[in-house]
Amino acid sequence: MASAPSSTSAVHLPDTAHDLVKILVAGPFGVGKTTLIDSVSEIRPLHTEEQLTEASAQVDDLDGVREKVTTTVAVDFGRISLPDGVVLYLFGTPGQERFRALWDDIAYGALGALVLVDSRRIDASFDVLGLMEESGLPYAVAFNAFPDSPRHHTDAQLRAALDLDPTTPMVTCDARDADSSLDALLALVHHLIDRDPSEHR
Amino acid sequence: MTGRRGGRPLVPAYLSTGGVARPSRSHLERLSVLTAAGPPAPAELPAAGLALLDVLAGGSLTVVEAAALLRLPVSAVRVLAADLIDRGLLLSRAPIPAADRFDPDLLKRVADGLRALKH
């Protein structure tokens, strides 16, 4: 489904585009955010270079990505045109506390977030889940199924490890697969629909 | 997530706006839609402003898409776009028309649309 336009002309919005909405795809480095966006996006995923603020640079935790010493971070995003003039944007959002200002800017006006988790390193997702709770943005959790992901954990164990609310959807997906990624996004959107209307911001 | 792909941009970000750090209008979101207004660009327009009008020649783009194509930070495009709007060269609109902002039907349309994409 993901087409790869060779020129920028394919990037321009169709005249029918009416409602532009966004969902964050949040998670730590290397969890598969760009892979998921790429699998469902109609445009080749684009990225913007974002400056890190001074304040955020003080908590510099680059576990496992020590070669990254730049002061900018690239934010990937993709786009899905839906019927009725709805255009859904997916923003890959790095979920570390030091990206807080960037996070707030990207999250502004978002419908919700799909939090991608790697079950081989659950603790890498604690930061992003903390940011989710603080921001109040509704979210669903999707475990990206890596070939060597441990399979002996029960849902209850995973939910407890992440300290998830019982109502927070938790699914497994293969970010490389479009249908699987769409299912994960649908789990989030259904959660948004089912929420008590009084909670809507 | 990765470093710069494909070399340095022609104009460094901090020079692209002529040294202006804050946009003259604050309502431009990442998904605000930018559309060229039509009048020919005046010759004295800064290069980055011309470049922004250039990528919009083929149709409308969101702020974040224009930033990605121009390889400029979103903050710089906000400044450039606000200047072009002030000059009457650019139109912008909010991502969602005000009337649709609290439309309970919107989420359902998103869900229906995503379901229809499945193979």
TrEMBL record, chain A:
UniProt keyword annotations, A-Z: GTP-binding, Hydrolase, Nucleotide-binding, Receptor
Top-level taxon of origin: Bacteria
Family membership noted in the UniProt record: Belongs to the GPN-loop GTPase family.
Protein's UniProt name: Signal recognition particle receptor subunit beta
Automatic annotation (TrEMBL), chain B:
Lineage top rank: taxon: Bacteria
InterPro entries: DUF742
Name of protein: DUF742 domain-containing protein
Lineage: Bacteria, Bacillati, Actinomycetota, Actinomycetes, Kitasatosporales
